[in-house]
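This section describes the prediction task in plain terms. A model, or a person checking by hand, is given the sequence of a single protein chain and must write out its three-dimensional structure as a string of tokens. No templates, partner chains or ligands are provided. The sample shown here is typical of the held-out split.
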Amino acid sequence: MIKSKLDYSKGAQPLYFQIKQILKEKIETGEYKPGDIIPSERELQEQFKVSRITIRQAINELVGEGYLSRKRGKGTIVIPHRIEEMLSRIRSFTDEMILRGLKPSTSIAQISIQEASKKVALALNIKEGDKVYRLKRVRCANDEPIVVFDTYLPNFLELPLDDNLYYGSLYKLLEETNGIKITEAIEYIEATVADKEIANLLEMEVGYPVLKTVRTSFNERKNQIEYTECFYRGDRYRYFVTLK
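The expected answer:
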């Protein structure tokens, strides 16, 4: 049975922590299911007879631990478990989601030609100012936005400038249009927070934790083919690696 009353005795845990544990247990036992909107801060405040600051601290910790997510205009929602990706293999987002039993999709895809910045030129082994393709996409799992991909590709690939062709797997498109197969990649991972643009695309609050990865991919001839900066929802995605 889930505890619902707070312990005010001497030496008891802080009230916010007790409330956090009660809400957490309701999520873990399925009383609050993924996608459910939990009671509002005001309702929880009345239920537990505590201040709104206490309720907010409990919810903030559950948001930080990946149990809850604040949705603008909707409330605080129970989120599914994080999607995990193994670090030691190269897979497209499409293949990774299918492997996890999730439906991959793309809500935004925009292809254009730009001049390479110094950073992009260095990653693709080209000259600064050379023409490159820039592909910006928002990819989803079960229709929920999970990641923003900001990808740069060398101009020799001769890719079509039709946004509609980039709603599926990029790696599959590269193979079909140019006979190129990605066989190796170098990837860096870091923690950051969502700026206004990323927050809007991923339907989250500005300043919310984001997992950023930077990938440079190569073909079988060790030529640089792709430079991508990825911004994953920190509450919905994580990497794992097996160490031996």
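For orientation: The longest helix spans residues 15-28.
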